[in-house]
Design brief:
This is GNAT family N-acetyltransferase. The chain contains eleven helices and 13 strands. By secondary structure, it is α+β, with helices and mostly antiparallel strands. It has two domains: 2-145 and 311-334, 3-Layer(aba) Sandwich (Aminopeptidase), CATH 3.40.630; 153-285, Gcn5-related N-acetyltransferase (GNAT) (Aminopeptidase), CATH 3.40.630. Strands 1, 2, 3, 4, 5, 6, 7, 8, 9, 10, 11, 12 and 13 form a 13-stranded mixed sheet that branches. A hairpin with a 2-residue loop joins strand 2 and strand 3 (59-69). Helix 2 runs antiparallel to helix 8 (211-224) and helix 6 (165-176) packs across helix 9. The radius of gyration is 22 Å and the shape is elongated. The chain starts with a strand and ends with a helix. 37% of the residues are buried. The model has no long low-confidence stretch (mean pLDDT 95).
């Protein structure tokens, strides 16, 4: 028997979940109710939430969506999300996952006109098929990538020997000067966070719109023992910083930045060298995920690239979707 329910607040969804998407029960950071709650409250507070649940005996599927209008939904995700997908509980097999996704798609089809989902990775084909079976016109477009490193039991020295000679020589040359000290912390304090913010403000990046979200993430992960907040310092001055989390043999690289005034000395590269060494040799991770984005420097550190997709679904019952659907399909064809 299938039961479908819908919730408009994270609090109501959390109550219905009864602990099933808390840290102890959910290995992936990006599938936890805390993640969705913090992302919505800090980054999308003005957009209504739409959380859909389908239950079949001992298994469940959840979709966490933003609903800027009754006819339009988007994945509850942004540039902090390494990937978005339905959240499955109870370990359903692949055919069951597809069937539950189809039920959720059919529920959305009743009133929805356009749904866009990004970033989608492993489940892209399954979701495309499930939504199409429910009546949606679907378009899949590659939208960047995600760079990964499978450690495969190597220690850091073995991994480092496989890096491009240009990168190894750069680290050796810059480290010889001995200008910077490396500090990797597992906690966050006001002083450390002020250092993090100061480096970002002096970096090449645009002003960070999500500092409250990142601070909440750092505090939550520090409390769980999974935070790795790294700094390269010149004397006491922070000149590069990186925010990682390490959990369940997986390291996630969330944010990195360095002071542009020190570009020639490569403090960010030296900090990366130390962070990778710490993750591999001390934390014993087996996967390092550099997140979304096809920055050239990531390919030097990582060994695999996973394509990320945007999925757009249009309800053909509404004539207002026909032209946008055609334009999106043409865009997918021409790349």
């Amino acid at each position: 028997m299938l039961v479908t329910r819908e919730y408009s607040t994270i609090a109501d969804a959390r109550m219905a979940l009864a602990g099933q998407m808390e840290r102890a029960a959910t290995p992936s950071l990006f599938n936890r109710i805390d993640w969705f709650e913090s992302l919505h409250s800090h980054c999308f507070a003005r957009q209504p939430l739409r959380a859909l649940q389908v239950i079949e005996e001992e298994v469940e599927a959840w979709l966490f969506l933003l609903s800027p209008s009754p006819e339009r939904q988007s994945a509850l995700a942004n540039w902090y999300s390494f990937a978005w997908s339905p959240v499955y509980l109870g370990n359903p097999d692949a055919p069951t996952q597809r069937r539950l996704a189809e039920v959720l798609a059919a529920e959305l089809f009743k009133t929805g006109r356009h749904i866009d989902l990004y970033p989608v990775a492993e489940n892209a084909d399954m979701l495309l098929d499930a939504f199409r079976r429910s009546g949606w016109f679907g378009v899949r477009r590659p939208m960047g990538g995600r760079h990964l490193l499978l450690v495969n039991g190597r220690d850091f020295a073995t991994y480092w020997a496989d890096r491009p000679s240009r990168l190894r020589n750069q680290v050796q040359r810059k480290a010889r000067a001995g200008r910077f000290t490396i500090d990797i912390r597992h906690e966050v304090t006001d002083a450390l966070w002020n250092d993090y913010v100061a480096v970002h403000a002096s970096s090449w990046k645009q002003p960070e719109p999500g500092l409250p979200f990142l601070r909440a993430l750092a505090e939550r992960e520090a409390a769980a023992g999974t935070l790795r907040l790294g700094f390269a310092r010149l004397n006491a001055q922070p000149v590069a910083t990186q925010l990682w989390t390490v959990e369940n043999d997986v390291a996630l690289i969330h944010k990195l930045s360095h002071d542009r005034a020190f570009d020639g000395a490569s403090p960010g590269t030296l900090l990366s060298h130390a962070m990778f060494a710490h993750a591999i040799d001390q934390d014993g991770v087996q996967l390092i995920d550099y997140g979304t984005g096809d920055n050239n420097y990531k390919a030097e550190w990582m060994e695999q690239r996973q394509t990320l997709y945007r999925l757009d679904f249009f309800n053909p019952r509404f004539a207002s979707t026909w032209l946008p659907a055609a334009r999106t399909a043409i865009s997918a064809l021409v790349g």
